[in-house]
Amino acid sequence: MKIAAYEVRPDELPVIEGMCKELGIEVECTSKNLDMTTVGMAKGADGITTLGQSTYSDEVLDELKSYGVQVLAARCVGYNHMNENYARKLGFKLTHGSYLPDGVADYTIMSILICLRKFKKALKNTDDNDFTLKGKQGRELRSLTVGVMGTGKIGRAVIKRLSGFGCRIIANDIFESDEVKQYAEYVDLDTLYAESDIITVHTPLLPDTVGIINKEAISKMKDGVILIGNARGELFDLEAIIEGMESEKIGSMFMDAFPGETGIIHEVHDTDIVKTEGMPWFRLKYLKSFVNFVQTPHMAFFTEEAAKQMAESGVEGIYECITKGSSRHEIPKAN
Ligand code: COI
Fold this sequence. Notes:
The chain is an alpha/beta fold. The chain has 2 domains: 2-99 and 304-324, 3-Layer(aba) Sandwich (Rossmann fold), CATH 3.40.50.720; 102-295, NAD(P)-binding Rossmann-like Domain (Rossmann fold, 3-Layer(aba) Sandwich). Helix content is 36%, strand content 15%. It has helices at residues 13-23, 58-67, 84-89, 102-116, 119-127, 153-163, 178-181, 189-195, 215-219, 238-246, 272-275, 280-288, 304-324; strands at residues 2-5, 26-29, 47-50, 71-74, 93-95, 145-149, 168-172, 185-186, 198-201, 225-229, 250-255, 293-295. The strands form 2 sheets. A 7-stranded parallel β-sheet has the order 8-7-6-9-10-11-12, sandwiched between helices. The longest helix has 21 residues, at 304-324. The chain is globular, with a radius of gyration of 21 Å. It binds 2-OXO-4-methylpentanoic acid (COI). 2-OXO-4-methylpentanoic acid (COI) binds next to loops. 2-OXO-4-methylpentanoic acid binds at residues 51-52, 76-78, 97, 298, 301.
């Protein structure tokens, strides 16, 4: 068996190579994204594995198909970038990454506290020897309502953690979980918007969730609402966020994932983002100038524990599909 592994970070390399050696798999790794310039590396491979920045265009998929590749294995949980419909049409098996939700859930609690305790301002001011308390008064979680959108693995782990803070927790998902009901009350989206002081979005990115946090949604929220976006940037309508920040409807926002980040995130972009007006990230430059807007480089997942599990799940996805015809990491077919 042969695997072509793309977007391999230095921390993933020993995990992928070690696992392939153990399983007797030939593997070729590159730090580059999969695209038309790099697809040739997959010649002779049974499966390819990538993270979230690669290009799964029709052209790339046609090429992979012509090489006899059978499995496309993302090492990240999100698979919105995988051109699923066309990939399925060509008969590929699709798997996605699997890792415990704890790292992202811990990070989300941190994001909430950073916003709640005006941490960006505190760090900036203290760096400049401004030791005043001006603009730094926070709120306590126990007196607030937190709305959790999406109660999949990550949403559930966030809710469990939040339950230790004594806040009221409300949640929304099309599938209700009994586990969640021990700690939170399921409400409809309008109620969640109207009653939450903090809203954290863990909804998967699907065609009908793109831009779910738009002008209309924001207008239904409490004045000064805190928004946390640690799942996918495209869940947020960027112009609506900008308007909400300008009008102070949004009291504070933390974004680990940004719309349009594919091909940009986890790379150095010293000047292009700052000078290229059309780039969605050009708007980020403006947003980042708000002292109550915090951005991080899509790193909520990035713990030693999760990174190892992700790398392993990429290899497992291919190995299991080829040897057993199916994998525990297979992406379920949408109805
Ligand atoms: C995911 O696993 O879906 C992530 O968001 C992490 C990815 C950017 C590496």
